[in-house]
Amino acid sequence: MATRHLGELGKKREPVDMVFDWFGEPIRVGPHAGDLTLIDFLERARQIDTSDHVTSMVVTKKFLHEQIDERDWPRLLELAVANNQQFSDLLQLSRDIVEAVTRFPTGPQSGSSDGRPTTKPKSTDTSSSAVAQAMRALKGRPDLKMAIWEAQKARAAEAATADT
Predict the structure, then answer these.
(1) Which of 10, 69, 101, 162 is the most buried (most CB within 10 A)?
(2) How many CA atoms lie within 13 A of 112 on its CB side?
(3) What whole-number distance in Å separates Cα of residue 40 and Cα of residue 138?
């Protein structure tokens, strides 16, 4: 039986070219920032005991580092210290970067609505999906479950938008 070639399936994307202001100074976003680094972060975070706050902070700092251009990382940290930033501030910065790069919100939706949706979401069998498996593996980590759930919703919305 001959192997069937599917052709070129990948879609080349340019490196991220974004900048943001951090206490009055421009900071470049890393060229590979985005949701794949978020997935790596979630995989690493899943393996951390919920009571191990030190390791959680170190893993989160590594995730933020992956979102920032290497040339600007030392200055970002200097500015964070000079402006009394806390762990939660850096975590929010990470969320903001992922949201900007991937163009989908990483936080819970607001209570307001633009009205009734025009189409109903397709039903899916989530019992065997990778997301469902990840959610089960993150038992006791509602923070990480929320991040996965939001990413899944955003991907569905993006796919629906692309279809129209």
Answers:
(1) 101
(2) 1
(3) 14
Integer Cα distance of 139 and 160 in angstroms = 29
Distances (CA, A) of 156 to 123, 141, 149, 150, 151: 11, 23, 11, 10, 9
Angle separating helix axes 130-137 and 142-163, nearest 10 degrees: 170
- On whether the pTM is more than 0.90, the answer is no
Residue entry with tokens 């899943």: 46
Tell me how far apart the alpha carbons of residues 24 and 118 are, in angstroms, rounded to a whole number: 42
Rounded CA separation 151/32 (Å): 18
DSSP-derived secondary structure letter, 104: S
Which two three-digit tokens encode residue 103?
A: 């163009």
In contact, 140 and 52? CB cutoff 8 Å: no
Q: Rounded to an integer, what distance in angstroms lies between the CA atom of residue 33 and that of residue 45?
A: 18
Q: Which of 8-22, 73-87, 128-142, 148-162 has the highest mean pLDDT?
A: 73-87
